[in-house]
Amino acid sequence: MDRIREAFAAGHKLLIPFVVAGDPDYARSLEIARAILDAGADMLEIGFPYSDPLADGPVIQAAAVRSLKQGTRLVDCLRLVQDIRARSSKPLVAFTYVNPLIQYGPERFFAELAAAGGDGVIVPDVPLEEAAEVAAAAEAHGIRFVPLVAPTSGEERIRAIVREARGFVYCVSSLGVTGERQDVSRQARALVDLVRRHTDLPACVGFGVSRPEHVREIAAFADGVIVGSAYVRRIGEAVDAGRDPVAAVRSFTEQLKQAALEAIRPR
Amino acid sequence: MSHYPYPDETGRYGAFGGRYVPETLMSALLQLEQDYLRLSRDEAFQAELKYYLEQYAGRPTPLYYAERLTKHLGGPKIYLKREDLNHTGAHKINNAIGQALLALRTGKRRVIAETGAGQHGVATATVAARFGLECTVFMGEEDMRRQALNVFRMRMLGAEVVAATSGTRTLKDATNEAIRHWVAHVDDTHYIIGSVVGPHPYPMIVRDFQRVIGDEAKAQILAQEGRLPTSVVACVGGGSNAMGIFYPFIEDEEVELVGCEAAGHGLHTPYHAATIARGRPGVLHGAKTMLLQDEYGQVQPAHSISAGLDYPGIGPEHAHLAETGRARYVPVTDEEALEAFFLLSKLEGIIPALESAHAIAYVMREARRYRADDIIVVCLSGRGDKDVEQVAAREGETAHGSHS
Ligand SMILES: Cc1ncc(COP(=O)(O)O)c(C=O)c1O
């Protein structure tokens, strides 16, 4: 069973939200994940909180801090995947930094992620040169190792990276860490074009995607759109204001999904 | 020992090192490696580097026989490699000059740096002023408080100082912020990392720019004593002064190499920065190395009285030297370092940086293990002016009994 492939095979552009496991606490992060999937998201990226998230801007850093303060451990993140899986058949992708993965042990990590119903993994601080061990362990358990490509990668690296890619290719929209941006970078489209020249795998765009109009714009040329900080900020703001974060993410998902559906399909 | 071959072509020192960074940085790191390898063989570049090390930084620094300290301890002959006499008061300027020239040769007009004690920040701000580079320094909010004088210095030199307010608000988080900033500005900015840490090729570049300490010390001890030292001792934060003085001695197996880690309140407490003694292999700031962390791989806060040693990781080459046993790493507490800070001031008229005081403290503690004709070379990595206020405040508190 390949849930990632089936999701892309459905023929529409995928909306792929990102949330942090255990933010603001375990129970509500489970509710949030379920609400996002029920409201029309096609896949979910689940951030495993880490003390030193190098690729993340202040919004996702703050969410990781909130989660870790609640005592979230890696085993809790795996349990969250399992609890989400119990009620959804959509693809679930873990987003984790490499150090927690190494400490847990790549073999054990991927065996348990697969058993929990996970489908893929994104490790933002493991570039191609360091990927062999982690990617092999993932593959052995049927977990797709989704690599990132960046506007700075250049064609030669992109060719080498997508050769090892599984599931889809994560295109980083612009220079910089995660966080909301005003506009979609022009580099995003060029990057997707370059990726398509070297692989038939789906190409998704993330980093900085924050608004329905961004989703509409990107869905016109990419196969999927990843939205992270904009979700995580809404969750944090709702919690701070004593409002229900579940309601906030549900309506946001509906707007983004609508935008993704409106996009024209060039392929 | 056969020829020491590290790093290998993948940027590893045995099991340690590598490049664990976001893909956005990979092309820049590969380019930097190529540029650096080319320039390290470029005679004009090397001549320019030598010129600034001599005429601007004030090299060579003396290897000073600490006669009164030697007599006081009644053991081995103690020599101090006087990196405190460099311009800006620490060894950090060696690397800052080298990397500023590297930035210029690679067409970068902007540099960024992280800093703990502020010494590397000051060194970077200084060379940025000299070479007309735009400069931003990231510094933990907590360290800005502890090292207020250095913050003022950097601003005087024209640098922008940005407070790192995430995590523990110390060197670790300043480094995170610098890396994040570099991810967003990698197209026009050179990141001057301040120690032998970070992704390959940085640990190699910083080591190579700091090896001048060891090259000089080796020639000087041979000139003054006619033989190699028994031990070479240095404090280890990220490990750049230690790697700089160790490196030229690595193949001289009879020379013992000793790195002094900050043991803070003691290894039996959680308040220390003893990465080799208490860490486990992990990944921090782009390198696989020894790391203070919990069982799930969350990085644990470090503690040291000295901001420059207050770091939960260590350069990957040190992790390798520890694993192979070529170097030995020993813990030194805050109290021991303070005692050494005062002793060296009183006996030799040299106020050491609190970081460097850790290396002096090891010699005080272990002098009895050595014979009278043994020779110990200690890297006095920096001067203590920056620490005087902090130490005075602490002594004042103790004197007025506000601890109780
Ligand atoms: C005087 C001095 N010594 C030592 C250090 C520690 O750095 P490293 O271990 O890289 O030499 C610092 C860092 O700020 C310093 O200022």
What CATH architecture label of chain A applies? Alpha-Beta Barrel
Tell me the Rg of chain B in angstroms: 20 Å
What assembly state would you assign to the polypeptide chains in this entry? heterodimer
Helical percentage of chain A: 40-55%
- Arithmetic mean pLDDT of chain A: 96
How does this structure look, described?
The complex is a heterodimer of chains A (267) and B (404). The model of chain A has no long low-confidence stretch (mean pLDDT 96). Chain A is 50% helix and 13% strand. A 9-stranded parallel β-sheet of chain A has the order 5-4-3-2-1-9-8-7-6. In chain A, 59% of the residues are buried. Chain A has one domain (3-263): Alpha-Beta Barrel (TIM Barrel). Chain A has 267 residues and is α/β, with parallel strands linked by helices. Chain A is built from 12 helices and 9 strands. Chain B has 404 residues and is an alpha/beta fold. Chain B is 46% helix and 18% strand. Chain B has 15 helices and 14 strands. In chain B, the strands form 4 sheets. A 6-stranded mixed β-sheet of chain B has the order 3-4-14-9-10-13, sandwiched between helices. A 4-stranded parallel β-sheet of chain B has the order 7-6-5-8, sandwiched between helices. In chain B, a hairpin with a 2-residue loop joins strand 1 and strand 2. Chain B is globular. The model of chain B has no long low-confidence stretch (mean pLDDT 96). The A-B interface holds A 50-52, 54-58, 61, 65, 68, 73-74, 97-104, 124-130, 147-154, 157, 161, 172, 175-177 and B 10, 18-28, 166-167, 172, 176, 179-180, 183-187, 280-286, 291, 293, 295-299. Pyridoxal-5'-phosphate (PLP) binds at residues 90, 116-117, 119-120, 195, 235-242, 308-309, 353, 355-356, 381-382 of chain B.
